[in-house]
Structures are given as C-alpha cells and as structure tokens.
Amino acid sequence: MVLKPCGRYVTSTEAEPQQTFRITPNDIEAVQGEEVVMRCEVEHLAGRVQWTKDGFALGFGNEIVGYPRFSLNQNHSDGVYNLRITNTSYDDAALYQCQVGPAKHNHPIRAQAKLTVIATPKDFHAKFSRT
C-alpha cells in the first residue's frame, strides 16, 4: 500500500499510472485531394491501439486492408498512433476514433474527431459555371 498526500492508502495497482492521451485527434477540414494526418498519442500505453471510421474498426496494422490510401503511422515506444489519409475524397468524410483497449489495471480510452472534405474552388467553379 502507498500513502497518498491526502492521507488515503491505495493499493499498488491504483498507484500505477493509467494510460491516457497525450495528444487527441482534432476535427479537420480538408480540401479534396489533400493529405491529412489525424494525431493520436498515448502516455503509459498498456492496451492495443486502433482507429475506427464511423464505428468500423480499421485494424491494428500499419496497412489498413480495403483502404489503400489509409495508413497507421505508429511508433510504439513513443506512443504515437497517427492515422494518415492520402488523396482525400468525399468518401473519407466521417467520424474517426482513436481507441486504446483495456489492459491489466487500465480502462479503455477513446478520442474522436470529424473529418470534413470540401471541394476545391476549381471543382466548385467547374460544377456551377455556365459555358
């Protein structure tokens, strides 16, 4: 047992640092065709990390099956798990979530962000111009 400054005793498992986010993803507005990186960094990582797109799990590997423009740029020792999307398209607009699973003495944690994909001024002009 450990005596906390408040005078309360806690077990050693409560005194261990819990996994927590150092950097959470931010909402992003991208122009169609741009590359985006959704950042996710974890302190005291204990569980496994994955991203979801509108609730669909994208997996744990660097390459994301079925999404060739998506990749997970990870550095386990630094707790970095950034989702990279190249050549964004309208289909990529969604709610993304960085999920860290439970592990011994650690609860799961989640952080989400919205990706909005907009047309370039050139695309907009071509669609609505009169010739």
From TrEMBL:
<keyword id="KW-1015">Disulfide bond</keyword>
<dbReference type="GO" id="GO:0005911">
    <property type="term" value="C:cell-cell junction"/>
</dbReference>
<keyword id="KW-0393">Immunoglobulin domain</keyword>
<protein>
    <submittedName>
        <fullName>Ig-like domain-containing protein</fullName>
    </submittedName>
</protein>
<dbReference type="InterPro" id="IPR036179">
    <property type="entry name" value="Ig-like_dom_sf"/>
</dbReference>
<dbReference type="InterPro" id="IPR007110">
    <property type="entry name" value="Ig-like_dom"/>
</dbReference>
<dbReference type="InterPro" id="IPR051275">
    <property type="entry name" value="Cell_adhesion_signaling"/>
</dbReference>
<keyword id="KW-0325">Glycoprotein</keyword>
<dbReference type="GO" id="GO:0005886">
    <property type="term" value="C:plasma membrane"/>
</dbReference>
<keyword id="KW-0472">Membrane</keyword>
<dbReference type="Pfam" id="PF07686">
    <property type="entry name" value="V-set"/>
</dbReference>
<dbReference type="GO" id="GO:0050839">
    <property type="term" value="F:cell adhesion molecule binding"/>
</dbReference>
<dbReference type="InterPro" id="IPR013106">
    <property type="entry name" value="Ig_V-set"/>
</dbReference>
<feature type="domain" description="Ig-like">
    <location>
        <begin position="17"/>
        <end position="116"/>
    </location>
</feature>
<dbReference type="InterPro" id="IPR003599">
    <property type="entry name" value="Ig_sub"/>
</dbReference>
<dbReference type="GO" id="GO:0098609">
    <property type="term" value="P:cell-cell adhesion"/>
</dbReference>
<dbReference type="InterPro" id="IPR013783">
    <property type="entry name" value="Ig-like_fold"/>
</dbReference>
